[in-house]
Write a structure and sequence with these properties.
Number of helices: 1
Order of helices and strands: HEEEEEEE
Radius of gyration: 19 Å
Strand order of the largest sheet: 1-7-6-5-4-3-2
């Protein structure tokens, strides 16, 4: 093993989760489509999809996602937590650069 490879193999590994969702302020238009995220206007909605998962558990997941581009060119994925009957629906979250 080379000295460089040995140093790299001994280096500590940071275990950071990338792209975690963070709470977001979202202003919506007709049909719940995002118009603004954290004060930034949306220029383009690329696509939207619904995720329903873990329906067999006590904590099912139901979210509506949008891939959007803001007017300053920032790409984001935002989602609305629809709650699936957990009593905490309504939260908006953003992921992206």
């Amino acid at each position: 093993m080379s000295a460089a490879a040995k140093v790299m193999s001994e280096a500590p590994v940071a275990r950071t989760r990338l792209n975690l969702p963070r709470p977001a302020r979202v202003r919506v238009g007709e049909g719940g489509v995002p118009l603004q995220v954290d004060g930034r206007a949306i220029e383009l909605v690329r696509e939207s999809w619904l995720v329903e998962d873990r329906w067999w558990t006590a904590r099912p997941l139901r979210r509506r996602y949008w891939e959007v581009v803001t007017t300053n060119g920032r790409n984001l994925v935002v989602f609305h937590d629809l709650g699936a009957g957990r009593g905490r629906a309504g939260g908006w979250f953003a992921q992206g650069s």
